[in-house]
Predict the structure.
Amino acid sequence: MYNFFVDETSKTIDGYSISGKDYNHIKNVLRMKTGEDLLVTCSGKSDLCCICDFTSEEVLVKIIKPDYQSTELPVSITLFQGIAKGEKMELIIQKAVELGACEIVPVEMKRCVAKIEKNKVKQKTERFNLISESASKQSKRNVIPKVLEPMAYNEFLAYCKEFDLIIVPYECAEGMTATIDAFNQIKKGMKVGVIIGSEGGFDDSEIEKVKTLDNARVISLGKRILRTETASITALSALMLYIETI
């Protein structure tokens, strides 16, 4: 079933009016007809709706079952991702959204192979947010996670103070005890951040700086050295599976 995001201005007496690019997608790409069902997500809630009519500019839908489903985790997860090369970064954002992250923050690190030029930050960020929107629709999220503009490492450290827990997967960490202990600290309603090194990994000074944070826990994802995109997906998958049990 297809999922579409609208804002409060799209509400009608018994449903929603969908316009713009989603109108074109429903009518001309998907070729949906009156009587077909779809999900409409507004302000964090997804309603099961039925298409009632098409006008020249809008799809009119009626709510069949309000609050039809919630797919959000009971813990807020932010992925801090060392900037990776183009397609890898886009893949990481897509999978992070599918796995339940509510925010993604590209982080500039000393060993980043890729750089986002200052004059392209706005364009890149818009592109990243379009990927997030598309992944949210595909995975039937109740929200569209925001991708922020890239942060310098010191900005990331300052931002971390707002979190209950910062998880730091690090290739030189040994054993799984710290990983288990960190996960066991997670409770419903917490704000958790995960910082993943870039393609070149963490610089030693970056690890030392993040270790000074009271809320940071350095963990292992196993004995193997993972690519940055694999590390992101592995860490978020493990977190998602654990959080689903609490």
Summary: The CA atoms of residues 30 and 165 lie 42 Å apart.
